[in-house]
Specification:
Oligomer: single chain
Helix content: 25-40%
């Protein structure tokens, strides 16, 4: 088996059928399987997944989180390469063949991602690669400084990113990550299970660089990314609490206490500001 596509779903019935059809069309030449790990959906997601003969389904009774669910999928994956693909993505015909072929030819790359676009085919800056977060840019996020001083996040968000240029980057989004399975075996997991959701993709990119591999962005294919449609039903405060919890986990893992301590202090401030803004 050349490719295992791993998708985590949670009430994704509106998008998962299109995504799974696109995966089947994206693999015209290579052998593939798709593993869908459902995190306790209450809609018709599970029924839709079962209607696809190429899919393996793991149906959890509760929401175990993005990292844990992906790790479940990796355990039963038989492909040489693993593609972590969100349920709100669309792959073009033959595109996944090209991406696997690219990774075969570049043994120094541990992760590769592609050009993520909106439904009209325009590059989506929200889905672009990002630099590894620092305590200072994340503090600016927590304090909502970017609302009044947007330039403070320009470096972190790579505002000068060139989407038509193949390049090495710090991190790519977990919505589309093609990874060598052998690296997952070295790490012992796909995503660090300490993360529930958010920051696990950044963490994986950092782990892969630690092992001596590169993280590469290539525009040889495009993939439609609806950016967060699978979480649009979650309330803003829930998102903020989980986002900042993972932020703190990330800095505790990678930075000394006197740096992550800043995030620990500012986290409740960020949550309070989010609550206040939702009341306006």
């Amino acid at each position: 088996m050349q490719l295992s596509v791993i998708t985590v779903t949670w009430n994704a019935g509106e998008k998962i059928r299109e995504q799974m059809q696109s995966v089947r069309e994206g693999c015209e030449k290579i052998s593939f399987e798709q593993i869908v790990v459902d995190n306790g959906s209450k809609d018709n997601t599970v029924e839709i997944v079962r209607s696809f003969s190429h899919a393996k389904l793991i149906a959890n009774t509760e929401n175990t989180g993005f990292a844990a669910a992906n790790n479940q999928g990796v355990k039963i994956a038989s492909g040489d390469f693993l593609l972590f693909l969100n349920p709100d993505m669309l792959a073009a015909p033959g595109s996944l063949d090209k991406m696997v072929g690219w990774l075969v030819k570049h043994p120094d790359a541990g992760i590769v991602s592609c050009k993520l676009t909106d439904a009209e085919g325009n590059f989506n800056p929200e889905a672009s690669p990002r630099r590894f977060p620092t305590v200072w840019d994340q503090a600016a996020l927590l304090l909502k400084l970017s609302h009044v001083l947007p330039f403070v996040l320009n470096k972190y968000l790579m505002k000068n990113f060139e989407p038509n240029k193949e390049q090495e980057v710090d991190s790519v989004r977990g919505a589309f990550m093609l990874v060598r399975k052998e690296i997952m075996e070295q790490l012992g997991w796909a995503f660090d299970p300490r993360y529930f959701i958010w920051f696990e993709d950044v963490d994986l990119c950092r782990e892969i660089k630690r092992l001596g591999y590169k993280v590469i962005y290539t525009p040889i294919i495009s993939c439609v990314d609806y950016v967060g449609q699978s979480f649009i039903k979650q309330e803003t405060l829930w998102k903020q609490k989980n986002f900042t919890a993972s932020m703190l986990t990330y800095f505790k893992k990678w930075e000394p206490w006197y740096k992550w301590g800043i995030i620990w202090i500012l986290r409740p401030v960020g949550i309070a500001l989010t609550w206040f803004l939702t009341k306006l």
